[in-house]
Amino acid sequence: YEGGGCAIYAGTTVFDDCIISGNSTSDDGGGIYADAYSSIPSTVTLTGCAISSNSASYAGGGIEASDTHLTMIDCDIKLNTSVYDAAGVDIYGTGVTGTVTNCRFENNSGGDGGGMWTNVPTTLDHCLFAGNSSVQPNSNSYGGGIYIGGGPLVMTNCTVYDNLAQPYIGGGGD
């Protein structure tokens, strides 16, 4: 069951100064799950939000944005967990984009892309990725801070430090 805190299927959703915390799911999107419906992508905008202490048994501990245009401004994404990809934010799909401005991804822990996992054109501006980890037992782990599985990814004035990927590959990004 997707979206421990909130599940969005198509349409436009705006979160302004919200706290999404302490939610969990046995699937994707512990805090928020957004997905297309009948090939119509969702559009989700978060401004001034705190996404923290959420968990997913699969991907997107904080946010799972599948076939969703995701815009995040001035948000804190911290202390989220996932078993597989993207403990903080997972952005993937076809024909969609991610735009993240002045956001902090801190102390998220999960599979590939502890802070963020993306395979869509994504722009990061003035973002911080710190203390995130990618740790998968019995498997390679990639991108403690950020995992880039496609793109392009454009980063401007961002800081990526003190992230961990183990047991085999990389620390900050992949």
Structure, described:
Helices cover 0% and strands 48% of the residues. The protein contains no helices and 24 strands. The chain has strands spanning 6-9, 11-16, 19-21, 24-25, 32-35, 42-47, 50-52, 55-56, 63-66, 68-73, 76-78, 81-82, 89-92, 98-101, 104-106, 109-110, 116-118, 122-125, 128-130, 133-135, 146-148, 153-156, 159-161, 164-166. The strands form five sheets. A six-stranded parallel sheet has the order 1-5-9-13-17-21, with no helix packed on it. Strands 2-6-10-14-18-22 form a six-stranded parallel sheet, with no helix packed on it. A six-stranded parallel sheet has the order 3-7-11-15-19-23, with no helix packed on it. The mean pLDDT is 93.
Describe the structure concisely.
It is built from no helices and 24 strands. With 174 residues, it is an all-beta fold. It has a 6-stranded parallel beta sheet, with no helix packed on it. Strands 2-6-10-14-18-22 form a 6-stranded parallel beta sheet, with no helix packed on it.
How is this fold's topology laid out?
Blueprint: E1 6-9, E2 11-16, E3 19-21, E4 24-25, E5 32-35, E6 42-47, E7 50-52, E8 55-56, E9 63-66, E10 68-73, E11 76-78, E12 81-82, E13 89-92, E14 98-101, E15 104-106, E16 109-110, E17 116-118, E18 122-125, E19 128-130, E20 133-135, E21 146-148, E22 153-156, E23 159-161, E24 164-166
Parallel strand pairs: 1-5, 2-6, 3-7, 4-8, 5-9, 6-10, 7-11, 8-12, 9-13, 10-14, 11-15, 13-17, 14-18, 15-19, 16-20, 17-21, 18-22, 19-23, 20-24
